Amino acid sequence: MSMDIPERYTALVAHEKDGRFVQSVEQIATSDLPDHDVMINVKYSSLNYKDALSANGNKDVTKSYPFTPGIDAAGIVVKSRDERYRAGDKVIVTSYDLGMNTPGGFGQFISVPGNWIVPLPNGLTLKESMIIGTSGLTAAIGVEKIVKQGVPPYSGELLVTGATGGVGSFAVGLLSQLGYRVVAATGKLDQTDFLKTLGAGKVIHRNQITDVPNRPMLSAKWSASVETVGGEMLDAVIRQTEHNGVVTCCGNVLGHEFHTNVFPFILRGVSLMGIDSGIALMSDRLRIWNLLATDWKPRFLELICREVKLTNLPGEIEKIDNGKQVGTVLVSLPD
Ligand SMILES: NC(=O)c1ccc[n+]([C@@H]2O[C@H](COP(=O)([O-])OP(=O)(O)OC[C@H]3O[C@@H](n4cnc5c(N)ncnc54)[C@H](OP(=O)(O)O)[C@@H]3O)[C@@H](O)[C@H]2O)c1
User: Fold this and answer.
1) Using a 6 Å cutoff on CB, does residue 54 contact ligand 1?
2) Which superfamily does 133-277 belong to?
3) Helices 126-148 + 166-177 axis angle, to 10
4) Residue 155 pLDDT > 90
5) What is the mean pLDDT of residues 105-112?
6) Residue of 37, 45, 46, 116 whose CA lies nearest to 78
7) CATH 3.90.180.10 domain position(s) in the chain
8) Is any ligand 1 atom within 6 A of the Cβ of residue 253?
9) Mean pLDDT (whole number) for 134-145
10) CATH top-level class for 8-120+305-332?
11) Is the whole model's pTM more than 0.90, yes or no?
12) Is any ligand 1 atom within 6 A of the Cβ of residue 206?
């Protein structure tokens, strides 16, 4: 089953020019899309840290250019050889290879294997699903690990690092909504009101976490953490975590290596739990998306979101490069 598909579509394209990477909005032949089973007319995408890496020519993310980034997409199926999907179905695609080496959600059309698709759950609009996007999904996976590990809302304080970022701000909002006492650690104290509106009880400068003595264990402060930046922050958070506390780890903004010691693990029973939303099992994705459409439906989506068009993306990508991004950037594709 299929719908009318134009010969060309509009997309943001990253390409190398005079030794540097630039992004521009261009027309692309639909026939250039990969020949996967399901073609989708993208209505919304969202901007992620990984999209900035792809747009800036990071070969660990994207091997070949010109290329259309966008690891997130939500839209309507226009053509399908996969019997699970029909033209007109509303669907979500996040991660796998989308926006890495498969043209991504910053274009009006994508072509993907059916196994990458999550049907839009009842209770969410396409727009809401992309305000959540990979950053919200990642935060929710982390929060679910904390909940499943048995950290109750009446426990002590929970820490969120990189708190104004896409993952961080969603984690602050979701944990607060679930009744946890959240401390937001940020480099942007001028965003204190934003973080408090999302529910943070306290906002502290991130240096307060990392400017600490080099002891194997520090005063126990956090019953759990959604740690989004990695490097020395991750080490410091582990050493400040309470007995039986949980630290979730998803990011490498501050570095992909970190040095720590065994004492928080063997003397305090701290658990370090990794998150990879990129290859999360489909059963886990469906469960988390369903939670986000029902019991955990975020009441703070309007607070964290700014809506932009493809033409605005180069400026928004630059803000990520400079660590200046706040909240979630929702990308609306042209009709
Ligand atoms: N594993 C996964 O499945 C997964 C999924 C999504 C994202 N990620 C990763 O998670 C990380 C965060 O992603 P995101 O989408 O939230 O990115 P983002 O929106 O760009 O936010 C990153 C935040 O990190 C903080 N930061 C920036 N530079 C820093 C520095 N030098 N030192 C300490 N903190 C700094 C800033 O927050 P403050 O100013 O508030 O401190 C910034 O807003 C990235 O590394 C991304 O690749 C992983």
Assistant:
1) no
2) NAD(P)-binding Rossmann-like Domain (3.40.50.720)
3) 70
4) no
5) 98
6) 37
7) 8-120+305-332
8) yes
9) 98
10) alpha beta
11) yes
12) yes
